Amino acid sequence: MSNELFYRAVRAFGTAIFRLVSTPRILHAERVPATGAYLLAANHTCAYDAPLLVAATPRMIHWLSIVEIFRHPLPRWFLTTFGALPLDRSKVDTTTVRQLARLLKAGEVVGIFPEGGMRFDEKSVLASGGIDSGVCKLAQLAGVPVLPCVVLGGAQFRRWRNWLPGARTPWVVAFGELIPPRTGPNRTAARVAMAEEITQALRRLHAEVAGDV
Question: What would the CATH number be for the domain defined by 3-212?
Answer without folding.
Answer: 3.40.1130.10
